[in-house]
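User: Show me sequence and structure for the first protein, then do the same for the second.

Assistant: Starting with the first protein.
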Amino acid sequence: MKIGTSVNTSIGVEDKTYIIHDLFRELSFFLNNKTYGKDLNEIILGIICVSSEFEKFYPNKKPKYTDFKEYVTDGIKVVEDKLFTYTLKYDYEDLKELSEQENKELLANKILESLDNLDQLPKKIKDFDKEKFKTDLKQFFIDKELV
């Protein structure tokens, strides 16, 4: 299973985005050789962490499943194959003011809460062990002492 992130932030927290990227790098490594079925290969979690004056530019988007799509962007071929994407809003002031450890703990809990988005997967997704995936993520965060 692949997991990735796309991070949008405001000026003022760009020096702390490494916290999000590092956590996802570790999570990606943890999930790299795990399989949960043939109907879902990758999850991309968009994290929105912007100051209040920019929130209007980042409305909540519905979770989206792409069975297969190929396209070229900026001369690079992109293949989306059994991909699920959704967004999570992370409080700008939390990222700005909390310590690295506190941010990791809060982010871990928010990611676990966000897994309810998996309930938005289309009914045609039959071969994906959602509960095992959730359990593995929770165990990852427990092992890292983040929850």
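Switching to the second protein now.
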Amino acid sequence: MASVRTPTLLVVGAADPYRPHMEWLADNMPQATLLVFEGAGHFPFIERAPEFTREVAAFLKG
């Protein structure tokens, strides 16, 4: 994963069972940004839609 040089946004809910895996990816990808949504599980794009949209748009704008 260390060879990945593309800016990457990792999105996970605080209660998502896959969160440890996303944290590992964030720790091992130099260009990764981990975005954890409090109060969300596996579907932060549904559970926290306004915040999700705002954060992804900000990431894409750079």
